[in-house]
């Protein structure tokens, strides 16, 4: 489904969708309430895996929200990385925003990000978490790097934002032809951010009322139902792939970023393994 365009698209919001639940309607509703003129952004819903009844449900929702400029794309192959890659290939916006289908954003989210993003500066919003079924918001580890209304900040001072792909606006020139590694099932967004980090010169922050709201649910991808051996092998693969990225162009990539990525990946893998043993 595709609504008619009336202006040049400035921001493409990419949302991978797999067997969507009611969370998706909440997510899309926050986009429909955006203060940014709806003709300036598009939403790309990449439905992957089973087609029905999800395709029909999404189409019915979009018919009830005609002001939302949305393209619904189906892929029979599932995987969040593949879905995001399809979205980037199809995106018409100058900037890319990634959004997970069970998360929420404040009404001023896109307008505020677009106001401070540039071709070499990544725009970052405030980030918080909330438990599924509750409305109380709380900071998460990424929040430690948030610096309200600060502009042109060195990337190393916002390194935690490079662990996830959401909560930000990224210019297409920064991304280029780089894509998510479809072989990774855990930590794929962190790997992607390391891959494009050589083209991010600086970062700028919105005000604190511009927020990406991360929904935490039981059985999330961080812990999930995987074995300790799975988490160990995945950690080793990620460390090897990250080293390959850095060694491919050591003069372009920051050794500090690479080292911090390696440490964070190792510590995250250990936490997952210990969690499985409890």
List keywords for this structure.
2 domains, eight-stranded mixed β-sheet, alpha/beta, 20% strand, Spore Coat Polysaccharide Biosynthesis Protein SpsA, Chain A, 12 strands, globular, 278 residues, single chain, disordered N terminus, four-stranded mixed β-sheet, 8 helices
What this model shows, in words?
With 278 residues, this protein is an alpha/beta fold. The chain folds into two domains: 11-221, Spore Coat Polysaccharide Biosynthesis Protein SpsA, Chain A (Alpha-Beta Complex); 223-278. It has eight helices and twelve strands. The strands form two sheets. Strands 3-2-1-4-10-6-11-9 form an eight-stranded mixed β-sheet, with helices on both faces. Helix 2 links the parallel strand 2 (41-48) and strand 3 (70-75). The longest helix is centred in the C-terminal third of the chain and has 23 residues, at 255-277. It is globular, with a radius of gyration of 18 Å. Mean pLDDT is 91; it is low at 1-6.
């Amino acid at each position: 489904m595709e609504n008619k365009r009336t202006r040049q698209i400035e921001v493409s919001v990419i949302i991978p969708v797999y067997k969507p639940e009611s969370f998706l309607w909440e997510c899309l509703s926050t986009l429909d309430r955006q203060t940014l003129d709806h003709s300036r952004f598009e939403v790309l819903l990449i439905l992957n895996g089973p087609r029905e009844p999800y395709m029909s449900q999404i189409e019915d929702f979009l018919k009830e929200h005609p002001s939302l400029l949305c393209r619904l794309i189906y892929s029979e192959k599932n995987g969040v990385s593949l879905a995001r890659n399809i979205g980037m290939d199809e995106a018409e916006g100058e900037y890319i925003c990634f959004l997970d289908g069970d998360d929420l954003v404040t009404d001023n989210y896109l307008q505020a990000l677009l106001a401070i993003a540039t071709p070499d500066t990544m725009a970052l919003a405030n980030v918080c978490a909330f438990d599924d079924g509750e409305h109380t918001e709380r900071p998460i580890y990424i929040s430690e790097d948030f610096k309200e209304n600060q502009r042109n900040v060195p990337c190393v001072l916002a390194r935690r934002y490079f662990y996830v792909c959401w909560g930000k606006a990224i210019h297409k020139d920064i991304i280029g032809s780089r894509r998510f590694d479809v072989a990774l099932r855990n930590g794929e967004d962190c790997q992607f951010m390391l891959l494009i980090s050589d083209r991010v010169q600086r970062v700028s922050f919105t005000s604190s009322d511009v927020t990406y709201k991360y929904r935490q649910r039981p059985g999330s991808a961080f812990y999930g139902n995987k074995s300790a051996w799975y988490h160990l092998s995945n950690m080793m693969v990620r460390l090897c792939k990250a080293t390959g990225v850095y060694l491919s162009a050591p003069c372009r990539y920051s050794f500090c970023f690479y080292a911090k990525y390696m440490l964070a990946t190792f510590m995250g893998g250990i936490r997952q393994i210990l969690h499985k043993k409890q």
